[in-house]
Structure to design on (718 residues):
């Protein structure tokens, strides 16, 4: 089974997380270090701005094997973040087996994200998977687990509305603009104020806008910000003229009084010949007089309105998260059933080998005695008969054993088989046989 | 024939339901919008087939009489919607177009197939008058739909509701532009209809109270739409004011049609 060791926005503050924020090539370096650890059989490394974690399959299934694997990952992570293991441990989470599978599914489906339902995490996990494949640190078991996680995320997206609605101030501002104007590519965005908030708004709103203009008390600051976004600057004294040509206005000045008043906007609307005007007021205290919202074709959304929209989006997503968690649970159970089926695989292989071995030995003894006159063709036909008999004989016990494994009774039945038929124990079975059998099945290939 | 009409009515109804589910349902339901557009197209095709078949069977020109006129308006409005929806990105106003198309169809079914309403005078002015009015009426259906959509979206935004219905309606500005464009295209048609109608009235109408009321409402429709367009161009009356003006103008136009329809009930059946 797999283990997960990592830290995220839930366990570590940004000051800690940023220590792990890797530069270009950091993922490959980490994968190289993890691959060098003998305690780990398969490994994937996920690094985002909110999360750094290692998903690994220990070498061996015993508790001691898992403990050694966890320790190995902790050591590599501590080295990566240039912190001591003791300092790192309080902010780390460690998950094993069923809990680890559930964690991978939840992370990939954005159920563990800071912004519930955000779509980027799926792409980030896919990138992590691709990097692990390229580094040769994934094999069939972990690959299947991650592939199933992609399918779970797709199910969550299509069967729930977890990704619907907008959930950040910037995205709400963009959504508002779209409600009023549709696409922004023929619109002018005016920033009143040139602080950090204006810059953040410019990043999201400015992407699609035809033009960005910045109006600020300090013209120099306005010019600097405008230059960064390829726009034009104007002094605050030119606000009325700027409002007459703008479509979306983002206000974020530190003014203690209203910068945009109702009489001003009334005059502006006459100059605009009634064209719609949207104010996104992210300043505290507010820059736009609330009564401005009552003017025809003028819409004002202040910080409270925006935060309410963010909260509404999050509430709606939380409601959908319950349905998404159910999907995750179903899929975790399915994966565990498949994984438990692997536990009885050695017993099945041993039983088949023993049965076939006995039959082949008997046939060969007879072929050397009474049937030695048979031709090569007849001998080959007899061997085919042996294979066919083995398959038919063992079909029912194999099926039942796999089913029992899925129900959690596989170990007991496998032990009984080993006892009854004097089969070799799990550790004695050639591991290569196991690998051959646990190759990705059709379902997995379909996902690929 | 009746089967075709019933089928068209059922398809319009299904389209209206699909649009409504798109607007009010939860979760990712964009397929309902596409489904609604397809159903509206299918309904219009069935309705058009019914008009052609009926007019051949009854040997009546499809633009003659209120019976077919209402049907033709319905089909033309649907066709105009299907053609223009992508340009103006107003797919969701199908939620208003589909029930209107159904209403016109039902009104058409209620009227007598041979009800003239336009007299029996043979004249080259007749087809021009009727066609101009029908095309104009169809464009006003779309202007009305866009205006209603605008008022809904505006009300939601003024209440600071950003999700739900308003998120699935076209953007406010698109609705305003579409409403203006349809009005602008329909107004010359209405003007031609009014001029030819005045010529017509002088020659054939009886001067009864009904005829006078119909003419008055016709002129009032023209005056209202003219005012909406002029005030928009001259005084910048956009958005809500233009939407209310458009809705009022459309209501007057509907009154004219209703007068034709009511008058058809008093005429002898074929």
């Amino acid at each position: 089974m797999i283990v997960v060791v990592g830290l995220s926005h839930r366990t570590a503050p940004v000051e800690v997380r940023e220590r792990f924020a890797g530069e270009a090539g950091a993922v490959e370096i980490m994968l190289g270090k993890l691959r060098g650890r003998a305690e780990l059989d398969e490994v994937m490394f996920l690094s985002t701005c909110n999360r750094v974690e290692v998903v690994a399959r220990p070498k061996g299934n015993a508790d001691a094997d898992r403990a050694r694997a966890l320790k190995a990952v902790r050591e590599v992570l501590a080295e990566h973040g240039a912190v001591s293991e003791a300092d790192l441990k309080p902010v780390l989470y460690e998950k094993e087996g069923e809990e680890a599978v559930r964690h991978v599914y939840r992370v990939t489906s954005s159920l563990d994200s800071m912004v519930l339902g955000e779509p980027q995490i799926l792409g980030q996990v896919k990138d992590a998977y691709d990097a692990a494949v390229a580094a040769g640190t994934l094999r069939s078991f972990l690959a299947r687990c991650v592939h199933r996680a992609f399918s779970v995320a797709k199910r969550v997206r299509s069967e729930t509305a977890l990704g619907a609605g907008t959930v950040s101030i910037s995205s709400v501002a963009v959504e508002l603009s779209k409600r009023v104007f549709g696409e922004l590519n023929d619109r002018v965005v005016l920033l009143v104020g040139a602080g950090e908030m204006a810059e953040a708004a410019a990043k999201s709103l400015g992407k699609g806008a035809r033009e960005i203009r910045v109006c600020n008390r300090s013209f120099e600051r306005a010019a600097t910000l405008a230059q960064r976004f390829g726009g034009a600057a104007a002094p605050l004294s030119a606000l009325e003229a700027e409002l007459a040509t703008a479509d979306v206005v983002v206000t974020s000045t530190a003014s203690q009084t209203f910068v945009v008043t109702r009489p001003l906007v009334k005059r502006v609307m006459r100059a605009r010949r009634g064209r719609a005007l949207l104010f996104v007021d992210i300043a505290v205290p507010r820059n736009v007089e609330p009564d401005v919202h009552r003017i025809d074709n003028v819409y004002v959304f202040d910080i409270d309105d925006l935060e309410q929209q963010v909260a509404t989006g999050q509430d709606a997503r939380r409601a959908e998260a319950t349905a998404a968690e159910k999907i995750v649970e179903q899929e975790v159970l399915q994966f565990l059933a498949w994984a438990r089926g692997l536990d009885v695989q050695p017993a099945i292989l041993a039983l088949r080998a023993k049965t076939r071995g006995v039959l082949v030995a008997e046939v060969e003894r007879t072929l050397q005695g009474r049937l030695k006159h048979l031709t090569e063709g007849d001998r080959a036909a007899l061997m085919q008969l042996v294979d066919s008999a083995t398959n038919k004989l063992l079909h029912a016990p194999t099926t039942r054993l796999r089913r029992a494994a899925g129900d959690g009774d596989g170990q007991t039945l496998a032990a009984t088989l080993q006892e009854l038929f004097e089969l070799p124990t799990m550790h004695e079975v050639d591991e290569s046989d196991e690998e051959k059998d646990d190759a990705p099945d059709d379902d997995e290939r379909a996902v690929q | 024939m009746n089967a075709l009409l019933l089928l068209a009515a059922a398809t319009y109804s299904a389209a209206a339901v699909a649009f409504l589910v798109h607007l009010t349902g939860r979760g990712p339901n964009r397929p309902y919008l596409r489904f609604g557009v397809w159903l509206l197209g299918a309904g219009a095709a069935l309705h058009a087939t019914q008009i052609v078949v009926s007019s051949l069977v009854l040997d009546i020109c499809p633009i003659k009489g209120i019976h077919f006129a209402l049907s033709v308006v319905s089909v033309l409005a649907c066709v105009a919607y299907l053609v223009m929806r992508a340009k103006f990105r107003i797919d969701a106003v199908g939620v208003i177009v589909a029930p209107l198309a159904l209403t016109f169809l039902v009104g058409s079914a209620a009227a007598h197939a041979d009800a003239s309403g336009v007299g029996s005078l043979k004249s080259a002015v007749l087809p021009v008058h009727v066609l101009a009015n029908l095309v104009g009426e169809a464009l006003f259906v779309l202007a009305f739909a866009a205006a209603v959509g605008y008022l809904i979206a505006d009300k939601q935004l003024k209440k600071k509701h950003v999700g739900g219905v308003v998120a699935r309606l076209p953007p406010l500005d698109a609705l305003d532009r579409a409403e203006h464009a349809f009005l602008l295209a329909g107004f010359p048609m209405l003007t031609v209809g009014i001029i030819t109608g005045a010529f017509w009235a002088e020659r054939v109408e009886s001067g009864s109270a009904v005829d006078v009321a119909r003419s008055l409402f016709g002129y009032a429709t023209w005056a209202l739409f003219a005012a909406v367009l002029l005030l928009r161009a001259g005084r910048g009356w956009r958005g809500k004011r233009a939407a209310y003006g458009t809705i009022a103008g459309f209501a007057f136009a509907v009154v004219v049609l209703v007068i034709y329809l009511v008058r058809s009930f008093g005429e002898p059946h074929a």
